Amino acid sequence: ESEARTAQARAAEEWSNGERERIAKIKVEMAAERQAAIEERDAYWQAQMPGMSSISDSSGIR
């Protein structure tokens, strides 16, 4: 019986590790999408109002 319990505990641990990895991956993807959206918005505003400096200038995007 203790072997079955150990196997169950191990399976639960592997699952939670997998979940942690999956969540971390999602967070990275979301951060990348948010960054892309910010850069897109900056580019849009610069196109609308040439000469306006925005956050993009500091990152070398003109």
Summarize the structure in words.
This protein is mainly alpha-helical and 62 residues long. It has one domain. The chain is 76% helix and 0% strand. The longest helix is centred in the middle third of the chain and has 47 residues, at 2-48. 0% of the residues are buried.
Largest sheet: none
Structural class given helices, strands, pairing? mainly alpha
SSE topology string = H
Question: Distance between termini?
Answer: 67 Å
Low-pLDDT parts are none
- Overall geometric form: rod-shaped
- Strand content of the residues, in percent? under 5%
Strand runs, count: 0
Descriptors for this entry?
rod-shaped, 62 residues, single chain, 76% helix, mainly alpha
Summarize the structure.
This protein is mostly helical.
